[in-house]
Amino acid sequence: MVIGVPKEIKNNENRVALTPAGVQELVKFNHTLYVQSTAGIGSGFSDDEYRAAGAEILPTIEDVYGIADMIMKVKEPIAPEYGLIRENQLLFTYFHFASSRELTEAMIERRAVCLAYETVEKADRSLPLLIPMSEVAGRMAIQEGAKYLEKPLKGRGILLGGVPGVPPAKVLILGGGVVGTQAAKMAAGLGAQVTILDVSLPRLRYLSDIMPANVITRMSNDYTIRELVKDHDLIVGAVLIPGAKAPNLITRDMLKTMRPGTVLVDVAVDQGGCIETCKPTTHENPTYIIDDVVHYCVANMPGAVPYTSTQALTNATLPYALQLANKGWQQACQDSAELRLGLNVVQGEVVYQGVSDAFNLPYTPLERVMSGAYSS
Predict the structure, then answer these.
(1) Is 240 annotated as a binding residue?
(2) What's the rounded Cα separation, in Å, for the pair 132 and 138?
(3) Which residues are annotated as catalytic?
(4) pLDDT at residue 222 greater than cutoff 70
């Protein structure tokens, strides 16, 4: 298969879809790799390293899209890329369709095969291609939150871990999944007083067993959230419904009950955000303030630490990329229930229920596509 790795052009996105090591593994199976010039620079990988691994370097993004059967990316295509995508071309990347009608309609129009990292799902309901970036984002949420609690950045002016004789900051984490667990570990390690909410009692029992004494667990509901936001300094939104829009757990009216300088970090912004006042921001302009509450809603948080993120992502995606390349997407998805669940939009049809529900778009059962109802 001919595989293309374009340079990411989303604002301040420094990750790249494959490391040179990942390229070398695909080349070993006789696949042809084309990498756009300087695609890996932001992650610390030079064109020469990709050449040494067996890739051919192409000068422009148009060249890469024009030649590849499968495009491997990190973030969803943005408007300048829409016109480059060909009918039946396989795109393997993070899409988060439910947060963008424009993107969804563009991919329907282009009749591409869109396989989303974030909805590839194992039998145990875990999301193997989302986990590594969720781990990074969860840890970064505390790192960034601690920074924006500083007074010059409009925060409360509180040190996350406190000092002897002065209490630490109070951190509230909405969601006990991968993001929430990593955020809680980081916040607890810095000495904060941490409360983590979830709707699953088994999950809360597990978290209670593994977390240090400065982390307490609470059942998540509207009443509890409304009470806790009044006196917590840093609030992290870490809620995920795979492939669907995140629910608004923090509503606009709650902001007026928070203390001035409270910091909100919405890691769910890629899926529409779990904070009603959330809107996507960038690393260039990461925050805004509503009702004296600082909002940090960067939609590609792991892009700020690309050396770590790119390696973690390649470690997770490479086995699936090999299946797709070795077998073709149709056979690979027939053979793998995990990959089948990654299909969101195929040849102009929405085949993932969460995307259909988000925008009230027609839904086509995946079985009709996989049985050959649509030509490939």
Answers:
(1) yes
(2) 10
(3) 96, 270
(4) yes
